[in-house]
C-alpha cells in the first residue's frame, strides 16, 4: 500500500475517535498501531481535541505529513471501541519488511 493511503487511513481512524468522544492519547496510539501494521517504521503524531497532525516515514525514507481539523464533537463510544478493535487487529498482524 502507498504511504499516502496509509496516512489517510490512520488520520480517518483518528478523526472518528476524536469526533466521537475518544481521548487524544488513544488517537495517537491508534495512529501508531495502524502505521506499524503497514510496516511504517517512524510515526509521529500530535493530537488536540480539534486537530490531528501526523508525519510518517517509510523504509525508503519517504516522509509524508498530514493535518486534519476536527470540527464535530459528539459522544458515541461504540464507534470509538470499533476503531480501537480495528487497530488491535492490525497490531496482531504486523507486517515486517
Name the helicity range. 40-55%
Low-confidence segments, ≥5 residues, pLDDT <50?
92-97
The rough form would be described as: globular
Return Rg in Å.
Answer: 13 Å
Determine the number of helices (DSSP H or I, runs of at least 4 residues). 3
Instruction: Summarize model confidence as the mean pLDDT.
Output: 88
Secondary structure tally: strands: 3
Largest sheet: number of strands, sense, barrel closure:
3 strands, antiparallel
Give, in order, the helices and strands.
HHEEEH
Q: Strand order, biggest sheet?
A: 1-2-3
Instruction: Estimate what percentage of residues fall within beta strands.
Output: 15-25%
Structural class: alpha+beta
Distance between the termini: 13 Å
Topology diagram in text:
Elements lengths: L2 H17 L4 H14 L4 E7 L2 E7 L5 E7 L7 H16 L5
Antiparallel strand pairs: 1-2, 2-3
Write out key terms for the chains shown.
48% helix; disordered C terminus; 97 residues; 22% strand; globular; 3-stranded antiparallel β-sheet; alpha+beta; 3 helices
Write up what this structure looks like.
The protein is α+β, with helices and mostly antiparallel strands and 97 residues long. It has helices at residues 3-19, 24-37, 77-92, and strands at 42-48, 51-57, 63-69. Strands 1-2-3 form a three-stranded antiparallel beta sheet, covered by helices on one side. The model is unreliable at 92-97 (pLDDT under 50).
